[in-house]
Amino acid sequence: MKSLKNYIISFVQGLISLLKGMRITGKEFFTPKVTEQYPENRATLKPFDRYRGELVLVYDENNNHKCIACGICQQNCPNGTIQIISSKITTEDGKTKRVLDKYLYDIGSCTFCQLCVTTCPHKALAFDQKFEHALFTRSKLVRQLNNRTTPNEENRQ
Ligand code: SF4
Ligand code: SF4
Q1: Ligand located closest to 80 CA
Q2: Domain count along the chain
Q3: Does 81 map to a domain?
Q4: From atom 6 of ligand 2, which residue's Cα is the shortest distance away?
Q5: Does residue 129 lie within any of the structural domains?
Q6: pLDDT one digit per residue (tens) for the chain, 157 residues
Q7: pLDDT at 2
Q8: Nearest CA to ligand 2 atom 7
Q9: Least packed by Cβ within 10 Å: which of 14, 45, 53, 61?
Q10: Is 30 inside a domain boundary?
Q11: Strand, coil or helix: what is 62?
């Protein structure tokens, strides 16, 4: 008999607690939003100028980047975030030249310290202002930055 009484008391207490919680939830549900507009303002949202979003190779108007595959950014990155894959080609005048095959960047391990950008001797790197990086698959965090076919690369094919 005593346990039934305890059961009924705890049931009523639980119900009162649930109703209190639902009252607050219901009130907040109908309260207009007053602070954040994101993601409704995604199209017009602009981060501050020095915001570091994602590392990118800088391309000119002819789709050429300035990277000479020297590997300095890879050496200076404290996290092993950058992997430069390069090869050697022979130019028309018979000289040997190193060229970039793949510039791989793992944003999942980047600390956005910008050492790579500041130490690149050719000013080939920059940070863009993308801020939405969420993904379902970790492997997609590795990006190939030389993702455009340049006139030079077309000639090599
Ligand atoms: S991005 Fe700059 S530092 Fe890195 S490999 Fe290319 S030229 Fe060298
Ligand atoms: S910002 Fe820093 S951690 Fe990220 S790739 Fe460049 S050097 Fe590496």
Answers
A1: 2
A2: 1
A3: yes
A4: 116
A5: yes
A6: 678 899 999 999 999 999 999 999 999 989 887 777 888 888 888 899 999 999 999 999 999 999 999 999 999 999 999 999 999 999 889 999 999 999 999 999 999 999 999 999 999 999 999 999 999 999 999 999 998 876 555 555 4
A7: 75
A8: 77
A9: 61
A10: no
A11: coil
Mutate to test the pocket of ligand 2, among 104, 106, 113, 120 (most ligand atoms within 8 A of CB): 113
98, part of any domain:
yes
> In the prediction, which pLDDT does 95 show?
92
User: What is the CB < 6 Å shell around ligand 2?
Assistant: 55, 77, 79, 81-82, 110-116
Q: Which two tokens stand for residue 17?
A: 């607690």
- Name the residue with tokens 């209190």: 20
- Alpha carbons 102 and 144: distance in angstroms, whole number: 6
Q: What spacing in Å lies between the alpha carbon of 96 and ligand 1's midpoint?
A: 18
**What's the pLDDT score for residue 24?**
94
Pure H helices in the chain: 2-30, 72-76, 115-119, 151-156
Output the pLDDT for position 157. Answer: 44
Lookup: tokens for 71: 């590997």
Q: Which ligand is nearest to the CA of 143?
A: 2
Q: Which atom of ligand 1 is nearest to the CA of 69?
A: 5
Residue 151: is the preceding peptide bond cis (ω within 30°)?
no
pLDDT value, residue 18: 97
CATH of the domain at 120: 3.30.70.3270
> What spacing in Å lies between the alpha carbon of 93 and ligand 2's midpoint?
36
CA distances from 91 to 64, 95, 98, 142 (A): 17, 5, 10, 31
Provide the residue range defining the domain that includes 100. 55-156
